[in-house]
């Protein structure tokens, strides 16, 4: 799916990046900022530049781009810090000190120029839920729903396999349509040809909703199109007409990588689309939002922009018939669970993490509408012990379950339950050469929140911590069953599987109920 979405083909190892998962405040006060960086410290710097007249209101995006670079250079020249040379435009200690001496140092000046106050037609998003403990909406009533995304990159296999299990499903979300940078909806994956028409016809005969996904993952383009009323209305018309002309039961809006500044415009888009859809379904697929308790350890300083969100939960609740939370690609982003679980720990989706995501959303979104996304794939990591309970996890690639069982078989290893209650194992990488996934099969993740490289501390270890090792973990039928049972326990509408199509643990179909 996602766009924002990172596509990781399991025939091509992904590049490994260096990104340390630490509370932002641990480095925000002192790191040197340069063109291309992003973060709360960049946003604070931009706020000061806005207050001092060097940047236009609304430019505090948190990204150090060309406009910010020009503003920094002008500020440095005006303050007689530097006006040429290699340090020109670099926000080091001297420039930071000059910025800090201003009257609005560290502020978020310019945030009053959010879409809602500069001509945006959406209403203010108000207070967004950020912590657990609030009252939940009433539990869902009626039939528990089971849905799933059907991948275009495995169209023939996916449609053939899913067709055998349509009686278990409430809806299917075929991939898919995409929105291009001009705001035009295109049938990139040929969902109107090939094996799709016959598959869609079979779904209709069994009363399964056909709700194709419309994907978009370009934050700049989303902001440009959705903030332009003419372009936004045209997009709403395109999507509504697409659903009606093809006799779809609805559409699944999967707009990812949106900026926080886009929040009101996106809400306005959903409102307009909802009005145009008539009696057709509007599904909304959104990135997982973690509660602050999971993002920061006790005592950590929480940045001022920590609750700047791109999705207004109140608007989603108002205009979306189903809100599907992409509760996967956890990796090491939950610092609380990182510290509580034993190594190796970098799950696709820990049950405790998923529970927190849903309980946070259920404070604002009706549980009659909430659907939890359930993964069917896994990740392989290269893990390096750092001492004192620390481990560096580097993503090698995502994979479908057959890859994990194949490697285990080659090495004579029996996979076991991990501390996240997924299935997995560790092995010495020197024992298996050329272990990268091979063949034509592939998988794709819906979101890119899972860091490619991170260092965390775990609570003890299940393995030898003296040498580097590879860690393989995936979501098998037992892990999927746990998510289904959790959805029942949390009283939400249902689950949506990512993805259907033959590459998942075949026992999955026995637990989807």
Outline the structure in words.
The chain is of the alpha/beta class and 513 residues long. It has 2 domains: 25-107, Muramoyl-pentapeptide Carboxypeptidase, domain 1, CATH 1.10.101.10; 145-510, TIM Barrel. Helices cover 29% and strands 17% of the residues. It is built from 15 helices and 17 strands. It has helices at residues 25-28, 40-51, 66-78, 93-100, 155-163, 196-205, 219-226, 229-245, 263-277, 292-295, 313-319, 335-340, 351-361, 401-411, 477-490; strands at residues 145-150, 171-174, 177-179, 185-186, 209-210, 213-216, 250-255, 281-287, 322-326, 370-375, 378-387, 390-399, 416-417, 423-427, 453-457, 469-474, 494-498. The strands form 2 sheets. The protein has an 11-stranded mixed β-sheet with strand order 4-3-6-7-8-9-10-17-1-2-5. Strand 1, helix 5 and strand 2 form a beta-alpha-beta unit. The longest helix has 17 residues, at 229-245. The chain is globular. The relative contact order is 0.16.
At the fold tier of CATH, the topology name of the largest domain is TIM Barrel
- N- to C-terminal separation? 24 Å
Structural class: alpha/beta
**Helix run count:** 15
Radius of gyration: 23 Å
How many extended strands?
17
Per CATH, the class of the largest domain reads Alpha Beta
Helix fraction bin: 25-40%
Q: What profile does the largest beta sheet have?
A: 11 strands, mixed
Strand order of the largest sheet: 4-3-6-7-8-9-10-17-1-2-5
How many domain modules? 2
Shape: globular
The residue-averaged pLDDT reads 85
Task: Give the low-pLDDT segments.
Answer: 2-29, 103-123
**What would you say the CATH architecture of the largest domain is?**
Alpha-Beta Barrel
CATH superfamily of the largest domain: Glycosidases
Question: Which strand-content bin applies to the residues?
Answer: 15-25%
